[in-house]
Amino acid sequence: MNTSSLMDRLPHLRQDFAASIVVFLVALPLCVGVAVASGVPAELGLVTGIVGGLVTGLMRGSSLQVSGPAAGLTVLVFEAVREYGLAVLGVVVLATGVLQLLMGALKLGRYFRAISLAVVEGMLAGIGLVLIAGQLYSMAGLKAPASGLDKLAGLPEAVVDAARSTEALTSVGLGAGTIAVLVLWQRLPRRVRTVPGALGAVVLATLVASGFGLPVAKVEVRGLVGSIRLPSLEAFGELASVGVLGTVLAFTLIASAESLFSAAAVDRMHNGPRTEYDRELMAQGTGNTLCGLLGALPMTAVIVRSAANVQAGARTKASRVLHGVWLLLFAALLPAALGVIPLPALAGILVHAGWKLVPLREVVSLWREHRGEALILVVTAVSIVAVSMFEGVLIGLALAIAKTAWEASHVRLEVIDKGAGPVQAYLSGNATFLRLPKILDSLEALPQDRPVELDLSGLHHLDHACRTALENWSARHSAAGTEPVKVTTG
Fold this sequence. Notes:
The chain contains 22 helices and six strands. It is an alpha/beta fold and about 500 residues long. A hairpin with a 6-residue loop joins strand 3 and strand 4 (about 425-430). It has two domains: about 10-400, no CATH class; about 410-490, Transcription Regulator spoIIAA (2-Layer Sandwich). About 65% of the residues lie in helices and about 5% in strands. Strands 3-4-5-6 form a four-stranded mixed sheet, covered by helices on one side. A two-stranded antiparallel ribbon has the order 1-2. One of its GO terms (cellular component) is membrane.
């Protein structure tokens, strides 16, 4: 096939090829960094990135969204590996993929858009805080405590320990320098910024560490094939554990929500085909099922790579597929290159990524306009730090549901008393048990020696608790010797 024929069949190949290079350069350090922070071999991050490009990238759903290992799941993966072992991780990811496939087949993908944005942002903020705290220990070459609260509480002692060690200070300095490069990268000339900031920061840190012979830890290299572990039958037996099932549900909820919210954000960046949410959920499920079979990290759509893909001029899904090809070629041909990357540099990249997950501006804006939503965001984030990922998300969802139920149960009681004759009371809105105390307080304050006409025709909804309470109040009022309460319904 000649070049002209190929361009006729793939009219956007030139743009997609260029975009794939950019996405590959963005994805490479993040795949490695997320894997190391998750407590698994660095190559497993590349495996997930390869599957995200070659498998998920080929499927229908969101045409320009790029999938791979994400910082948003780092904390949860680390906890799962620490609690159950690396052998069980593949089973958890596999089960997550199967659940996503099932939800996509049942057309449940669109309903993830109904999840409160405050809960999602709170979830990401909590993840970001725990990720930052954990990676600060890694920057100093120290072992991080297990829980989020312990990570935060132990930081002052970690600072003192690091200050006493020349090697720790050197490691922190390299990590801090990486963060500084990432922050300042956007201020550099446009020609320099054609190289993604994360890649530039890692390359500079590697050159500095190697050039000056700094005593810092490096990425351990095992080889792509050597890192892949197929789940054993014994590992599948762990699915009977309540803790493992809870982890699967947490993976499913967070990975699906993050992917579909990312898809909505990517749709706002371009004018191409819109996301088919159920198909996208099935694409993510297929990718996670395969990642689970390979014992790799869980996959989500990643907004950083997706935004880079769109901004680099990608027009079709060919760009994300090609980025998977480049990751595969790198992992197969240049695995030893990973061994020269200093761990403090990867920790610095993830501290920067964690900071971007904390929506400080959104919290301030929400507090001014929707304080209830701001409260949900903050409580969700604090709960994740204080308790755990799964329980924190459940607490956030419960708060969001309670807030919605409270707002939806708006009811108004209007009383007209002309001084003589019956007292007229009009109820309108949604009468639910949440507003029952207010309704009864107002009705019981009506004169006991006067007849009452209660008009319920303005109610859109009257739940069983309210209906029963109104009937009981009516009976009590009528028993006082006055005329029976006259109730009018719509």
